[in-house]
Structures are given as structure tokens and as C-alpha cells.
Write a structure and sequence with these properties.
Rossmann fold, Helicase, Ruva Protein, domain 3, 2 domains, five-stranded parallel β-sheet, 14 helices
């Protein structure tokens, strides 16, 4: 494929998948499922751990559907108090309850002819679940305080990090609603299952935050990149994004510092790292000291870049055998296993 065609194909994919970054087999499998279900009007249930990008998948379903260009409305079911959630979903009439001083249009009505994305559907209270089931089955609802039935045409995409099968078994989620939601499930893999995408994600977020902050990041060391690739990422892409933002804030001289914490005590090392914890920790400290121009303390020093106190970093360096070479007065000259301790 020529560079021009490759660029066009990349731009087309960007528009289709709302800047979803990566081309690992695990991610490509998910995007293939999105392409399969998007042209239909079927309900989609997006499953996956917190921070995996379930909302981006919901956007992609909408963008590739005949409803693209129509409303895409979202609601996080876990973020709305129970006594307000029904009104948020279905709306209310003036005077329907204390404090209802004006008519309110609910999210279903706002999403008419488009897509409604209900995030954290597993947190939907049992008392509201029958009303949601009715809307999905009949495509009709009433506002609170009104007897008038409203007809709508809404596609629902729901998402959760919870195990709905287990919740149904424990009578914490209605089985009939679960079966209605689970028409076409899409499982979004955790970041540790798509490590091939980490380098692209790092570069993407560095570019985004550097542009936003007016900084120029010219270098990401191989040691830092290896640390990103081998870390387990319990918070998934969201954790990676937040740590890259932190690193860009702390960056100096065009170099991206490693924002990952140094494992403490018996903390399990990154599972994918071929080196030992001691070797990785020593390499990380040496790389950070050199990036800091040999400074240990101070706001720009290695300790601050690693999120440690100066005394803690010095203690770790002594334990790991990181010394200043004998006779070398420049504090920036360090290596591992020299004879003269700090």
C-alpha cells in the first residue's frame, strides 16, 4: 500500500473509531465486532474492566451506524442519586415532586432517533429496571407526573465492569433485563492483554498533552518505554493516560520522565519484564538521574521525578549499589557497582 493510501486508510479509521489507538489482534477483534453490529439497530452490551475505553467503543458503534449524525446521549448510572435517576432517564412534569419547578426532558427523549449510552448499567437500581425494560421492549415511556405516553426510536448501548451473570444469580439484577441488554456483547480487553498497543498509546498521549501544555517532548528513553510496556496497568488505558499527563508536566529538556512508581518491598515486579526487580529498579534510577542532569534532590531532581523523598532514593541507591565513580566530582556521573558510595 502506498504512503498516500495508507494515510487515507488511517484517516478513515480515525473517523470511524473515534481515535481508538492500537492495532493489536485483541483490539482488532473488538473493532471487527463493532463493524459487524453497528449497521443494525440491536442493543449492544460493552463489557470490560474500568478504564478500558468502553465509552469509545459505544461512540464507535454510533459513528458506524445509520444513526451517525443523530444525537449521542450518555448517562452514567452510578453518578446519579437514586431519587433523581428516574427523572434523568425519563424526564418529569412541573410539580411532579418537590423541587420539580419546571418540565424536564429525560435522556431517552433527548436521544430520540439516535443512541443512548448507559454507562455502569450494573449500578442501575432494581426499582428502575422494570421501567427500563419496558422502554427497550415497547419503545415508549411516560415522564414522571404525566399520564401521556411518548413514543421514541432509540438505540441503547450499555456498559459495565460488573459481572452481570453473577448479579442475576444473586438477584441483584433482573434476568429479563439482562437478557434484553445482552443481545450483542462486546468484551473490551484490558491493556495488559494488548501490550502491542502501549507504545502507540504512549506516543499518542504524549503528543496530546505536550500540545495542550505547549511543551516539546523529543525523547522517550527505551528504558522508560520498556517500563510502560511491561507494567500490569490495573487501571488500564485511563491509568496510562493520567500517568503520561503527569510525566509531561514534569518533563524537562525534551525528555519524558518515567512516571511509574518504583516497586516497594515485596511488590510483584511487572510480570512481562524479563529482568529481575533489582535490575529494573537500578536501571530506572540510573536513567532518571541522568535525565535530571545528576541532581538527586530539588524540585527537578531524580527523587522528585520518581515521586520519592531524597532520603528514600539515596537509601535505595545504596542498597542497589549505585555509586559515584572514585575520583569523579561531577554528581551526574553514576554507575552501578562502583566502589565509592554516595
Amino acid at each position: 500500500m502506498s504512503e498516500r493510501l495508507r494515510s487515507v486508510a488511517h484517516d478513515d479509521r480515525d473517523r470511524q473509531f473515534n481515535h481508538i489507538v492500537g492495532d493489536s489482534p485483541a483490539l482488532e477483534s473488538v473493532l471487527a465486532e463493532v463493524q459487524r453490529v453497528a449497521p443494525t439497530h440491536s442493543t449492544v452490551l460493552v463489557l470490560g474492566e474500568t478504564g478500558t475505553g468502553k465509552e469509545l467503543i459505544a461512540h464507535a458503534v454510533h459513528n458506524l451506524s445509520p444513526r451517525c449524525g443523530r444525537p449521542f446521549v450518555k448517562l452514567n448510572c452510578a453518578s446519579i442519586p437514586f431519587d433523581l435517576l428516574e427523572s434523568e432517564l425519563f424526564g418529569h412534569e412541573k410539580g411532579a415532586f418537590t423541587g420539580a419547578v419546571a418540565q424536564k426532558v429525560g435522556r431517552f427523549e433527548m436521544a430520540d432517533t439516535g443512541t443512548l449510552f448507559l454507562d455502569e448499567i450494573g449500578d442501575l437500581p432494581l426499582a428502575i429496571q422494570p421501567k427500563l425494560l419496558r422502554v427497550l421492549q415497547e419503545q415508549e415511556f411516560e415522564r414522571l407526573g404525566s399520564g401521556r405516553t411518548h413514543q421514541i426510536n432509540v438505540r441503547l448501548v450499555a456498559a459495565t465492569h460488573r459481572d452481570l451473570d453473577d448479579m442475576v444469580a444473586r438477584n441483584e439484577f433482573r434476568s429479563d433485563l439482562y437478557y434484553r441488554l445482552n443481545v450483542f456483547p462486546i468484551l473490551v480487553p484490558p491493556l495488559r492483554s494488548r501490550r502491542e498497543d502501549i507504545q502507540q498509546l504512549v506516543s499518542h498521549f504524549v503528543e496530546v498533552f505536550a500540545r495542550r501544555m505547549g511543551k516539546h517532548i523529543e525523547q522517550i528513553s527505551q528504558t522508560t518505554m520498556n517500563a510502560f510496556i511491561s507494567y500490569d496497568w490495573p487501571g488500564n488505558v485511563r491509568e496510562l493516560q493520567n500517568l503520561i499527563e503527569r510525566a509531561v508536566i514534569r518533563s524537562d529538556n525534551g525528555v519524558l520522565p518515567n512516571p511509574l512508581p518504583i516497586p516497594q518491598g515485596n511488590t510483584k515486579p511487572w510480570v512481562a519484564s524479563p529482568s529481575t526487580l533489582r535490575e529494573y529498579e537500578a536501571a530506572l534510577i540510573l536513567e532518571t538521574i541522568r535525565a535530571a542532569g545528576g541532581m538527586i534532590g530539588g524540585p527537578q531532581g531524580a527523587a522528585a521525578r520518581l515521586g520519592l523523598k531524597r532520603t528514600t532514593l539515596v537509601s535505595k541507591m545504596k542498597r542497589l549499589g549505585i555509586y559515584r565513580p572514585r575520583g569523579q566530582r561531577l554528581i551526574g556521573e553514576f554507575n552501578e557497582g562502583s566502589e565509592l558510595p554516595l
